[in-house]
Amino acid sequence: MISGKTRSFALLATLLMAFTLVSTDFADARRGGSFGSRGTRTFQSAPPTRTAPNTTAPVERSMTPNTGPTATTRQQQPGMAQQQRPGLFSGLGGGLMRGILIGGLLGVLLGYGFGGMAGALGFIVQLLLVGLVVMLALRFFRSRQTSATAPATAGGPAASGSNSREMFGRMANRDAAESERPAGNGRAGSFSIPGLGAQSAPASQDIELEKDDLDRFERMLDEVQTAFAKEDHAGLRRLSTPEMVSYFSEELAENAQNGVRNDVADVHLVQADIAEAWREDNQDYATAAFRYESIDVMRDRKTGKVVEGDEKLTETIELWTFTRPRGGDWKLSAIQEATA
């Protein structure tokens, strides 16, 4: 029968778990974090820049599928498990040992000793005999297992040559990819463009940006902030990709449900530079590091009173990724939080 203390403990554990889940959902729904898509580089860290010198974590929320090495690793696990040595109580030797021990223990419990031998001396002698039999059996089965797996371990000429070809083939492919990777340096306007190629994906090609592109990024920083503060959905659709519009709309709907609105004003760009710019097929991407000041508060929708934040300038560092079809207009496709 369950005691009162056990029931109280179970109830407390359930309440703590429920509270943790609620807290996690609330934290995930708050504004901030990293979201959007950066093409094939969505789940790669952008290179550090003068504006954002520390490595920025990859995007957390994205509609881009994450095709990482997890699937390959899982496929290799069954083969690795087959190569592992069986445990002490596995196989025929393990079955023999278990049978002897269980039979002996039953004999002791029934008062007959191990095999009917009486007295402490007989008990000790029979234990030694059991240990000797088990040791010989295990040695016999291990020697058979070693002889059976020796050819596979040693590897014949055909198997060894195949593995060598695969290994050197992978190294050759990697070296070829690194030798073909372009490295470009340049400057445009007030933005500095470092060498781009350390994290270039096979399907992407680094590109150079024009000063007009960089000026456009600077204007879009203020335009997106203004459209979000005014809850201008048409403006957000004009400036952002459909994925980013969905994230913005979700946040605006949550603010409306909570009876607040996010007021962002006096956006002033302090420093900016380009982390990387590249092309995938006919789609261009560029990630810019922004350090800007703004007044960012939450106001009551009815009274306009500040309910969260302070009406003074605060500094923010973020990475904004823009994308466009080749020859088209730039749109915001990702935002990542950064640190100084």
TrEMBL record:
| Sequence intervals crossing the membrane | 95-114, 121-141
Instruction: Name the Gene3D superfamilies on file.
Output: 3.10.450.240
**Record keywords, A-Z:** Membrane, Signal, Transmembrane, Transmembrane helix
Q: Where is this region: Disordered?
A: 33-84, 173-204
Family annotation (SUPFAM superfamilies): NTF2-like
Q: Which domain of life is it from?
A: Bacteria
Which residues fall in a compositionally biased region of kind Low complexity? 37-58, 74-84
Q: Where is the composition biased (Polar residues)?
A: 63-73
Question: Which segment of the chain is annotated as a signal peptide?
Answer: 1-27
**Xref: PANTHER family:** BLL5807 PROTEIN
Which named protein is this?
Tim44 domain-containing protein
Species: Mesorhizobium retamae
